[in-house]
Amino acid sequence: MTAPSTSVPTTDDGQQDLPRSPGGGDPFDRDILPTPPGATAALLRSLLAPMKARVALTTFLLLLQQAAVQAGPLLVAYAIDSAVPASRADDHGPLIAVGVGYLLCALAAGGLQYWFIIAAARVNQDVLLDLRGRIFRHAQALSIDFHERYTSGRLISRSTTDVESLRELLNEGLQELVTVVLSFVYISVTLLWLDLGLGAVAVASFVPLYLLVRVYQRRAGRAYRIRSTAIAAVIVKFVETMNGIRPVRAFRRETANDADFRVLNSRHERANGDALLEMARYVVGSRLVANTAVAGIVLWGAYRVAGGSLALGVLAAAVLYLRRLYDPIDRLGMFLNSYQSAAASLEKIAGLLAQTPSVPEPSTPRQLPALTTEHPGREVVFDAVGFGYRTGGEVLPRFDLTIPAGQTVAVVGSTGAGKSTLAKLLARFYDPSAGRVLLDGVDLRDLDVPELRRGVVMVTQEAFLFSGTVAENIAIGRPDATHEEIERAAKAIGAHEFIAALPDGYDTDVRKRGGRISAGQRQLVAFARALLADPAVLILDEATSSLDVPGERAVQRAMQTVLHGRTAVVIAHRLSTVEIADRVLVMEHGRIVEDGSPAELVAGTGRFADLHRAWRDSLA
Amino acid sequence: MSTTPATTKERSAVRTLLRLWPYVRPVRVRLFTAAFVAVLASCVGLVIPLVLKWMVDGPVTEQDPAGVWLGALYLLLLGLAEALLFGLRRWLVARPLSHVEAEMRADLYRHLQRLPVEFHDRWASGQLLSRGTTDLMLLRMFLAFPLTFLLVNGVTILVGVAIMLMQDWTLGLVILGPAVPVLITCVIFERRYAEVARRAQDQVGDLTTVVEEGVLGIRIIKGFGRHRSQARAFRELSRTLRGTELRKARLLAAIWAVIVTLPEVAIGAALVLGAVQVADGALSAGTLVAFLSTALALRWPVDSIGFLLAMSQEAATATERYFEVMDEAPEAEAPQRGAGLSHMRLRRVGTPSPHEPAPDDNEGIRFSSVTFRYPDAPADSPPTLDRIDLHIRPGESMALVGATGSGKTTLTALVPRLHEVTSGRITLDGEDITAIPRASLRALVAVAFEEPTLFSASVGDNVLMGADDRAGAEELHRALSVAQAEFAHALPQGTDTQVGEQGLSLSGGQRQRLALARAVVGSPRFLVLDDPLSALDVHTEAAVEAALRDVLADTTALIVAHRPSTVLLADRVALLSGGRITAVGTHYELLRTNAEYAHLMSGETSGETTGETTGEESEEESEEEPEEDEDYR
Questions:
Q1: Residue B531, in any domain of the structure
Q2: Chain segment A292-346, per-residue pLDDT in tens
Q3: Cβ contact, residue pair A415, B535, below 8 Å
Q4: Do residues B187 and B55 share a domain?
């Protein structure tokens, strides 16, 4: 368990021509997140730790099973050397004993095998369950900026193909390893007991075998690390294409994509082939050692039998054992194979799990103060807040802003002016680089997730639907909502009619027959979600861009009721939204350049007055 | 009753696996050679006990040192041969099998890219991905081990049994005793395992889907603080998968138990019988040693049958899942829909070039009684689009207006044949679109989608994919300026900056402008824009509109619009309502004469202004709609 952790961020070959993003050495681009030394082994340990007892039981079962299996040749030796002569002397007792013994061993071997497989499967499946859950939960806990950089394809690859390699290791590998080690020990001991000399030769042959294993481990390890990176690249491309199939078709990207995919795919093919060839080399080497040892031992043994210093039965048993001793070498190879592959995957998983959320949950969460009025709204304060992305890019210079409880604030400004960043800071998708964001005087960083989301909910412009029914999609806003509440939310926002017209109404599966939902309708669903969540502060980030004018109006009318008494930040390109706002912020290059009531700003001569005029004109 | 389905199942597993042949064919020589080598290596392994017998009965008992040396030498040579043959087998298949896997994956990818859009609407991409990764890995492993070793072990067992029978036929028959019960167990096992294996693989696909959605929908999950319930859903599914895997393990354990126990019992019986015969002097000790040593050498070939069968079964399931997708028909090239269209087949264009108008047929885009119903929609449901007649004159731009969910996007998707019309036809300059090869059609018609997708490539490449290969920096520059996407020049590496999944993340408005630039970069003759300006602020929108007007001056365009400002880009407007085009005219004409249109454009209705009323009205055709309300707050 030591090898993988020591050789962590060595530069994998074959990476040079991967597409590069700004800053070529970025570990994100190369899919080599730094894995802290020992993290891989620590991960494996922590996965196995909770089931120590069951691992012990499983090992014990295997121990017994191997004892039953390996007893065979001993009984053969006994039969030839003792039972046959006894039988000749008309004493059939020993022979009957051999028969009964063999039968018992056979039954025990089969029964224990059955028990062992089931016990082992339980351990394996529990480890996988644990690991899958950990990756998923961790990925969910990591902040948005991580997701923006890590890419979805890689995350998917971590939780599918990489977990799959561990599954192979656990399913076949560990059993192989235990069997191999056990039979090595059993057989060596038995051989030494049968005959010290022959046994010593057999044990001596382990030295070159061990060296072979080390060499193989190192070389295959490299091959597998490259392979794991390569398959992740394949998955990234695959996912991107399938999720963007319409533009792929409309712009005839098929052939170009085929070519790109071929490059990534053949890189994986090469890495795969390399790994398999390493295995071939290992098999030849280990077989050569084993077979030479067998020939040597037989030669010496036969000499001694001929010279009368060794019983024939002992030689027979020794030879039978020798065949068995070296049989598992191939299986050791298979184990190393799955171990290397799993180690490479685990290393990547450990790297992912070692990422700390840049928006961590508080260790000692605070509660929001109890509401003093019957209105749900709360006061929002940006206290000397500044923000810059780690990669550079959009930056908000330091600013102060107070939004009193119950106020609806519209944020306008051109694309890239920093409106969404402001919203994401308030929703705690990011933490500010400087200063703090306060909700009723409590720093957002001190709120745990449930409390934070009772406080702030954000509806974004991308209206993603999850698999499941329409009702389930709305209920994301509040999972314990009743069907009536879901329907009420949908009605309030004007989404009820289209949902009712779907084949199964609210129970229509969004991916099944007739479940097509247009972009505008998705946004309505997203709104219904937000409505159901009933937060103190609601952030709408261009959430009506795909709605038609009546739809948008309906939403706005609903919002006037819904937002009453609630604090709201509405980001919109359409100034129509501004009509429901108490206050307007105009942003430009990351700064708030105008701040006032709509009427004040329209009457003034600033940017908002310009924007408003342009918008009125556009309504024609 | 139980045997017949078992055998058909068995056969169908074999038949399923046979479908892999086209992929295996190119590497068949190596694969067969490798199998032959493996058989040879196994047989060499079986000869070793015979040499032992010869040594025990000959030189050892006769105390002949030279004979002992010779025997050991034979053993060494056989051992060397076995080692090299084993290595040779692996060397032979290593590259070819990786190649087969890669080929199958590339084929799947190629095929998926060409399947109808409806297919992708229906299939979660996690299910597709799990077919392209885990299933194919299973297949590679199947080709590497079970396929070869079922053959090798079969031959080894046969040869071994033959050797044993030759040495002593009574003992041989004893060893053969368990064969029938073991075979029966295998058949039963096979059938049950197939079922569970399929379920497990499907559940892996479902799990992949949840993972994928958890990643793609991360902003929503975070926005609502739902990652715990998401994790709970994930745990449910992975628990279910665990249950299925445990069922698999129980089946596997059962067959292992049978396969381990029965042959071992037979060996024990042979040992006792053999010992009796040796005691009676009817059998030499060497023969017994050789016999048992052969029997023990056969243990692993027999033992392994269980998991080889299990792996084969999983491979059969993987093959089934793979071909489930591969058997879906890709978009057909020849005209196929609407019997009335068959005569059009004769009027194929030679090689339509996007920049060369066909002079005699210069009549723009024409929809003639186009009806469309999603192929997977219930047959009794009203069609999404019903007998659409619409003519867009050459060089004219037509805005398409309709309530949310009225089918505007669907209508635009028909032009580049992302969906196929159910009946009726669409002509471009008189040419039926079903008669134009898709590639040419899509070169002719440029599209900007409402959801602007950028690919993992540079900004420049993303935009230039809308043009043919001749387009260069100049076209790129022009397109970026039309779409007001000059921000691209200010990115870290200018237009060479990587965007998309693996690059810089851009805002919705920025992506939308790049998508628009992509649509106009090739100066297409026909342009389809689906709400192309929805994410832009008013100023940018106005600038884009001004620039677009020039482009649209001589382009035939269909523009989905929600807002008056976008509508004004177009020369005329068509109103889509209840699946039909209910009105066509200029913006001002319709504003005056059509209540529904006026409502859609202004959002105002007289009288009640509750959300519910408005919602209902936007769903229905509203001839009885009250006239618009001038009251503007």
A1: yes
A2: 888 888 888 887 877 778 887 787 778 777 777 777 777 777 777 778 888 888 8
A3: yes
A4: yes
Whether A10 is covered by a domain: the verdict is no
Distances (CA, A) of B467 to B251, B421, B518, B591: 58, 26, 8, 37
Q: Which residues contact A60 (CB under 8 A, 6 or more apart)?
A: none
Judge whether A7 lies within some domain.
Answer: no
Residue B534 lies in a domain: yes
Q: State ipTM.
A: 0.79
Give 3-state DSSP helix, strand, coil % of chain B, rounded to 5: 65, 10, 25
Looking at the partner chain, which of A251, A262, A466 has a beta carbon nearest the beta carbon of B217? A466
pLDDT of residue A115: 92
Does one domain contain both A59 and A202?
yes
B319 and B361 inside one domain: no
How far, CA to CA in Å, does B291 sit from each of A409, B82, B286, B294? 91, 20, 8, 5
- Mean pLDDT is lowest, of A159-168, A415-424, B50-59, B401-410, for B50-59
Q: How far, in Å, CA of A550 to CA of B541, rounded?
A: 20
Residues B568/B601, Cβ–Cβ less than 8 Å = no
Per the structure, the count of domains in chain A is 2
For A172, the token pair is 């076949």
pTM: 0.78
Which parts of chain B sit beneath pLDDT 70?
1-11, 333-362, 500-505, 603-633
Asked if residue B374 and residue B289 are part of one domain, the reply reads no
Cα dihedral B241/B245/B246/B248 (nearest 10): 140
Number of domains in chain B: 2
pLDDT digits (tens, 9 = 90+) for A75-91: 887 887 888 888 788 88
Question: Could you report the per-residue pLDDT of A541-563, keeping only the tens digit for each?
Answer: 877 777 777 777 777 777 777 77
Q: Which of B122, B535, B611 sits opposite A492 (nearest CB)?
A: B611
- Asked whether residue B492 is domain-assigned, the answer is no
pLDDT (0 to 100) of residue A68:
86
Same domain, A337 and A393: no
B420 and B298, same domain (yes or no): no
Q: Which domain holds residue A594?
A: 380-619
> Higher confidence at residue B579 or residue A152?
B579
Residues A434 and A326 placed together within one structural domain of the fold: no
Q: Is B614 close to A553, i.e. CB distance below 8 A? A: yes
CB-CB under 8 Å, A240 with B129: no
CATH (domain of B174) = 1.20.1560.10
**Domain annotation covers residue B8:** no
- Phi-psi region at B284: left, alpha or beta (left = phi > 0; alpha = psi -120 to 50): beta
The pLDDT score that the predictor gives to residue B240 is: 93
Pairwise CB contact (< 8 Å): B267 & A102: yes
- Which one-letter DSSP state was computed for residue B359? G
Boundary of a domain, candidates B309, B326, B343 = B326
Same domain, B40 and B152: yes
**Among all chains, which residue has been given the structure tokens 């929600």?**
B562
A window 365-404, beta carbon within 8 A of B: 391-393
Confirm if A540 and A569 have CB atoms less than 8 A apart.
yes
